[in-house]
Write a structure and sequence with these properties.
354 residues; mainly alpha; Farnesyl Diphosphate Synthase; two-stranded antiparallel sheet; 2 strands; 72% helix; 1% strand; globular
Length: 354
Amino acid sequence: MTPASPAIDAESVTALLERGRTLATPVLRAAVERLAPPMDTVAAYHFGWIDAQGRPAEGDGGKAVRPALALLSAEAAGGLPEVGIPGAVAVELVHNFSLLHDDLMDGDEQRRHRDTVWKVHGPAQAILVGDALFALANDILLELGTADAARATRRLTTATRKLIDGQAQDISYEHRERVSVHECLEMEGNKTGALLACAVSIGAVLAGADDATADTLERYGHHLGLAFQAVDDLLGIWGDPEATGKRPWSDLRQRKKSLPVVAALSGQNPAADKLAHILAEDASKSEDEIADFTEEEFASRAALIEEAGGREWTAEEARRQHTTAVAALDEIDMPAEVRAQLVALADFVVVRER
């Protein structure tokens, strides 16, 4: 059993995220520069390093949770954080491969307060650059040439396969009238949990951790990913567009069967029945018809989801998954400070606003 961990404040969490970004970004940039033109500049635009005209830009680069976890996982296994850098970069490349493709499939026109790649450079470039980032991710690890790097690559490819399975499930659910809570959690475990689980084990594997340790860290990451996605689902309906960088009611516009919607529909109350009737009618409408909905129409659907209990159930599920994730850390003998940092990052995931 790991001894009690010291408390970590919000400022320290910010420092952890910044450390992950600072150590991973130079290697990430070097990897992107290996892409053939124009994929190198398209990828640079996606990462926020340049604007649509190719001029240097100061994009926020995302939350950097995955790089932070990869570096911490190396420390959890007794290694230096730098050992986890190739893993952090590989996971970021796969994550961004999925974002490029997801934005196109979902028709999202905004990410991180900027036009998405397919909107600026076209669908073909979004597909090609996504594919290129996935290939680079494997190269980054295999070029290390060690047995541990091969083990890390295997975990990354397994996580990527699950991520793709999750995206396929997500798309198929949009066209179904009903999806169970179990199915939704399985989809989100694949789509989000798998890569976070990989992020928090890959650094440990590169540091020489045995499979039992890596598997336990993956369990922490899997449940953390479910908590992360539950919060993301809440933000996808009720998030402040100024903070999320997406349009209001973005998930409702895409008819996503996210956790709040699925949980609301599973309720036995008048609001759930009314919501089911409205969403069934929406399913017969075209995307153009949905796009013509007024803000009030989306707001009324969000209000029904909340009245039916979907919002509170999802918030509670995020808390449950957070608790399960943190409990897994007790099974690993690691420095108390590292455990505290992993707990603090889990706390950050469930209280974030974007």
